[in-house]
Structures are given as structure tokens and as C-alpha cells.
Known about the structure:
By secondary structure, this protein is of the alpha/beta class. The chain is built from ten helices and ten strands. The chain has helices at about 15-25, 40-45, 85-100, 110-130, 150-155, 170-205, 210, 225-240, 285-295, 315-325; strands at about 5, 35, 50, 55, 60-65, 215-220, 250-255, 260-265, 300, 305-310. The strands form two sheets. A five-stranded mixed sheet has the order 2-1-3-5-4. Strands 6-7-8-10-9 form a five-stranded mixed sheet. α1 (about 15-25) packs parallel to α3 (about 85-100), α3 packs antiparallel against α4 (about 110-130) and α4 packs across α6.
Amino acid sequence: MPKVIGTHSGTFHCDEALACYMLRRLNEYSDAKIVRSRDPAVLETCDIVVDVGGIYDHEAKRYDHHQRGFEEQFSGNYKTKLSSAGLIYKHYGKEVIRSIVKEAELSDGAVEQLFVKIYEAFIEGVDGIDNGVSQYPSDLEPAYRENTNLSARVAHLNPWWNRPEGDMDERFAQAMQLTGSEFAERVQYYALAWLPGRNIVEEGYNGRFDIDKSGQIVLFDTFCPWKDHITTIEDENLQKNPEVAKILYVLYPDTSGNWRVQAVPEKPGSFVSRHPLPEAWRGIRDDALSERSGVEGCIFVHQSGFIGGNKTRDGAVALARKALTMD
């Protein structure tokens, strides 16, 4: 007999839609029926309940986060309170990851890396929004409104106040499809693209003194997602030796065969670079930039100084070396 997943009726949200999607990825609940109700008698008949009922009890398979005194977090390294999505991910996330990327044959260590990374990159944002946790101090006024995140797009699937509700179960199914497709795509990306990039970044980091004696320029012969890995690898090395110099520039070939020189951000996600390319080069292109920099084959330097380009590997190295000594 198929299992039954219970969640609340009425207006739905991103967290329980994603929680239900993740449960359906598990063999135990792959063909489970989803019942939406707030009636305790109905919920009592469900095999597992998310986002309703006022109980968090893993043994009883009850995963609500609204009750007084609930302060569960992903681990001691995080401050964000879990939503129902975070609760299901915390207890079943590793199994969900394996179900989405079966072909990868991931080691336990790789799954552990992905488990933490995907929480940080995807699930924690859902938890924070659902629990009303601000990303920044409340006395700061946002520079613009942002209403296109996943939680907002799920909210838009609910009926307008002045329109008939229609089939709310069908709308909830759409929300599950939306959250699930985006979650699965991110899992695939991190497992099949982001994680393999670690080896490339580590090789480039270990060879940094072959590029420049400062050890502050890293070169990759193949482009890969590098920003998270650079930060992690740096932190690992700083723990061993606090005097290790931080990386300022990363060099790599682009899709056209030219080379990029990119300034490393102060931290992943930041628009502020540790050491932007020199102000005198910013917004200049081609021959004018080659003349000004003294390096042949220049293509451009962005007006913010976060990235530049050269036609050759040697040209990119020369630009980065010169930039180290300039502001």
C-alpha cells in the first residue's frame, strides 16, 4: 500500500513543496500520496508529516518547525533556523543526493561535501526566507527589491485574493515541480561540475609559485568553477601556515581561446575584489590598453577592474604580474 505524506492545506510555500519533492525522491516514498490538511485526525493517518502539526520528532516522522521553542539548525556551524525543507534535507539529504546523481557513483566523502555545499547554496536560503531571517541587519535599507527568488516564485503560484482558488492540489503539484526541478539541477551541477573542479583548482593552487614568485597568481589550463574552491583551499592552507599569501588573480582560457585575468573576490558572492586590476587600465581596450599596460595582445579591462583579457597565456601572466605592483 502506498505511503502517505501529509502537509498543510491552504496557501502553500516553498519549504513544504521542496520537502515533499525530496521525500518523493526516496524509494520509501517514491509513489506516496500527498494529503494536504490541517485536521489532526487526518494527519494522524499519514506516514510522515511536514510543515504542520506542531511536532518535530524524527523517530515519529513528524517535521514541523512552527512550534514554540523550535530552534533546530543544520549543524553548529549555522545560525539559520530550519524550515520543513531544511529538516527533511538534514535527515534524508544524502540519500536524496544519491538518488538524483546515481550515475556519478559518489564516494561517502564526496556526498558529505555535496551535502554541506548544497545546504549552503540552496536549502539555507529557503529556510531563512520561510522563517523570516534577514540576510543583513534590519537597519540597512535594500538598494532594490528582489522578488524573483524561488520562494517568491512558489508564492506566485497561489491564487490571487480576488480570483477563484481552482484546484489547490494541482497548484501545489506545480510548486513541487518548480522547486524540485531547480533543486535537482543544482544537485547535478554541484555533483558533476562543481565537485570535479576541486581537483583543477587544487592543482593550480599547488603550482602557483611556478607562475609567479609571489604565490598570488593561480593559473588553470581549463576553466572550471573556482571561487568556492579557492576560498576553501586557502583556508585549509592558512590553518597549516598563517603566513601563506592570499591569491589575488586567477588566470584561465575562455571559450574563444583567449585568456582571462580575474581578480579574486574578498569572499564568495562579493562584488568587491581583493586587488582589482589597476585603475589606469579600467575601461580601456585593445591597442590602447596594450600601449598603456606595456603588454601585447590586450583585449579589455572591465571598468570595475574585476576582470580583463589577453589573447595569449603569456600576455595574461604578464598583465597579472604587473597588476600585483599597481593600484
